[in-house]
């Protein structure tokens, strides 16, 4: 299937995508950024034959097979996601496996423009690498996909374009500080529409995973046993479902206070970079945005703060819009 434009964000925690169908409707989706080595054992092969309707895509990267579950509600794996909390994630084979699995999931045979984002603090380091890695004919096993063009943009640009496209009257003429909280990074972009203040914008590690890890440490202290299930914590917070530790239900919400210092440190870093803040309206987005709400309110007590709806997908929708705007 030919897809004119795809917005794709293989994030440290979740891979998200957006595309427009022939009727003009935008479709979005996501799955956990888990790419695990394919088990070639006879037992694993036998079990796979019993799993009808499996959502697992098997792709090949550098001669190795990886399994990626592209279901939104894929099961948690113990310690899943921790291997992605590194600054070189964009250059790792697991990252490419997530991109390939997305294209396989969408049944793409050709893509006109693939738009992807990078955290601002790693943009210069990896943008050219991603451009070379994903433009042209991609072969990842039995499947090939032709990608005509690749565009790499700083991640908060996606949310900025989505905000502008929605035409929120309350933000008309405002100078905004758009704060994008991902799994492993926090980016902020100070702008008035497309007029960006690069000197006041920036990015740093310190996203949602830092909160989950602090909560896990708090739970470990209370249990007097190590608890390392940060993905289980993410799921419980996102869905409101109970977290189970050692088979017992735990009210994980009460451990949010364990992450106060981490979120305040990041909020203070943003405050120092933007300097004088009297002209700013804060716009909070990203899958981990809600985790930083209280810290930002404390560090920016006078500023109006707006939280975007469906903020998990604002970046990839903006990437899609960017690709459509760049048609030659």
Mean pLDDT: 89
CATH homologous superfamily name of the largest domain? ATPase, nucleotide binding domain
Helical amount among residues, as a percent range? Answer: 25-40%
Largest sheet: 6 strands, mixed
CATH architecture of the largest domain: 2-Layer Sandwich
The total strand number stands at 17
Shape: globular
Q: Which CATH first-tier class of the largest domain would you pick?
A: Alpha Beta
CATH topology of the largest domain: Nucleotidyltransferase, domain 5
Distance between the termini: 22 Å
Measured on Cα atoms, how large is the radius of gyration? 20 Å
* Helix and strand composition category: alpha+beta
- The SSE order reads EEEEHEEHEHEEHEEEEHHEEHEHEH
Number of helices: 9
Specify the oligomeric state: single chain
Relative strand content: 25-35%
Explain what this protein looks like in three dimensions.
The protein has 328 residues and is an alpha+beta fold. It folds into three domains: 2-156 and 315-325, ATPase, nucleotide binding domain (Nucleotidyltransferase, domain 5), CATH 3.30.420; 170-207 and 268-308, 2-Layer Sandwich (Nucleotidyltransferase, domain 5), CATH 3.30.420.40; 208-258, no CATH class. It has nine helices and 17 strands. The strands form four sheets. The chain has a six-stranded mixed sheet, with helices on both faces. A hairpin with a 3-residue loop joins strand 10 (175-181) and strand 11 (185-192). 44% of the residues are buried.
């Amino acid at each position: 299937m030919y897809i004119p434009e795809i917005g794709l964000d293989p994030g440290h925690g979740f891979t998200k995508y957006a595309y427009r169908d022939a009727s003009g409707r935008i479709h979005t989706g996501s799955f956990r950024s888990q790419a695990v080595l394919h088990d070639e054992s006879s037992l694993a092969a036998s079990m796979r034959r019993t799993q009808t309707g499996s959502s697992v895509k098997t792709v090949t990267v550098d001669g190795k097979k990886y399994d990626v579950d592209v279901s939104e509600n894929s099961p948690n794996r113990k310690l899943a996601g921790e291997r992605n909390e590194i600054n070189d994630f964009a250059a790792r084979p697991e990252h490419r496996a997530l991109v390939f699995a997305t294209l396989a999931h969408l049944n793409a045979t050709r893509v006109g423009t693939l738009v992807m984002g990078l955290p601002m603090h790693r943009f210069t380091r990896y943008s050219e690498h991603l451009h070379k890695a994903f433009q042209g004919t991609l072969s990842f096993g039995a499947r090939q996909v032709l990608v005509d063009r690749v565009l790499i943009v700083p991640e908060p640009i996606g949310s900025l374009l989505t905000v502008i496209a929605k035409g929120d009257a309350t933000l008309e003429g405002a100078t905004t500080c758009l704060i994008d909280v991902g799994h492993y990074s926090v980016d902020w972009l100070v702008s008035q529409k497309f007029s960006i203040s690069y000197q006041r914008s920036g990015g740093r590690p310190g996203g949602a995973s830092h909160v989950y890890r602090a909560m896990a440490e708090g739970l470990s202290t209370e249990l007097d046993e190590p608890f390392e299930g940060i993905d289980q914590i993410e799921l419980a917070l996102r869905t409101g479902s109970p977290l189970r530790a050692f088979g017992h239900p735990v009210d994980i919400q009460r451990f949010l206070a364990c992450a106060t210092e981490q979120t305040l440190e990041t909020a203070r870093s943003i405050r120092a970079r933007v300097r004088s803040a009297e002209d700013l309206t804060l716009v909070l987005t990203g899958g981990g945005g809600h985790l930083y709400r209280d810290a930002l309110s404390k560090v920016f007590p006078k500023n109006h703060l707006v939280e975007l709806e469906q903020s998990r997908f604002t970046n990839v929708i903006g990437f899609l819009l960017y690709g459509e705007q760049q048609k030659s």
